[in-house]
Amino acid sequence: MEKLWNAVAMVSRVAIWIGGAMLFVAAGIVTSEVLLRKGLGAIFGTGFTFSGSDEISAYLFAVGTSWAMAHVLMTRGHVRIDALYGNFSPKLRAYCDVFALLVMGIFLLVLLERAWDVAFTSWSENIRSNTPLRIPLAWAQLPWFAGLALFGLALALAVLRSLLAIARGDYAAVAALAGASTQDEEIETELEGLGLSKTRTGAGN
Predict the structure, then answer these.
(1) Domain residue spans in the chain?
(2) 195: left (phi > 0), else alpha (psi -120 to 50), else beta?
(3) Helix (H) or strand (E) holding 171
(4) Which residue of 13, 22, 53, 65 has the lowest C-beta tally within 10 Å?
(5) What's the pTM?
(6) How far apart are CA 96 and CA 6, in angstroms?
(7) C-alpha closest to that of 75 among 173, 176, 188, 193
């Protein structure tokens, strides 16, 4: 179980880097199209545009977002409202964490079924976009589904590991796996992103 979790975590790290690159490319396409249309178009009195820039950037955004979801789950980077959660006992928080994962899993199962149906239909029937580019929709929909499937695998493993931890009475493990990040943990994460640590920062003060 631990080896599989680590393997999925490694794949999710690679996926989020690729997904992030896709978002940057999408932003670059949209920015370039706006600059050409508003800049050179205004100067020369004609329209300079990338044909299908909105379409391509939308595909990149959808795929890039789905490829980032597994990593966000495994690093507890999602946002949750925890006004009451913080006042619960460790045991009750653990049960709430598992319940949240299960509810998310139900939604994801429905989403995966619909996403596969759409992607497989587009691939088998060679459906193309109703745009001048005529891009095969499966080119975007299959990678989008792959990102959702990776998220589903990470979610299933998180549920299994959380249930095993609850069976052992190890509620701290559930918190570390699926619980909402504490304020100190969020601060530590931000400092690590800056190449700092709370220990070094405190020593410097």
Answers:
(1) 2-204
(2) left
(3) helix 171-178
(4) 13
(5) 0.82
(6) 24
(7) 176
